[in-house]
Give the backbone structure.
Amino acid sequence: MKAGKLELKQVIACSILIPYLFLVLASTVLNRPEQSRMTYELQLFWSYQAAFHGRKNLLKENFLNILMLMPVGILYPIAGKHGFRKVVITGFLCSALIECSQLIWKRGLFELDDIFHNTLGVVVGYGIYIK
């Protein structure tokens, strides 16, 4: 590869990653109805406590949050040849952006659990990438 030129796999990864991130943003923020107030849960791992007390659907939501950003962990290192640290930081920032957008625009519950699970998904995705 020559300096300044993208490889085909990088172009393909970018072509998938950018629309995917837009779809994630649309489904988690833009397509949700506005609530009357900002809602948030700042206790880390609250969802596991709630699931233990009967709200089993939260375990499914946690799993889906892990799955949601796994593609970032796979595609981002391909798109830019980034290492583990940069991939994880980028995934964390994407998740934090989603959660902050939900809070500011009153379109969902800001949760530290979601940030944790989304970032975990990026780590799992990166693990798949390096295999």
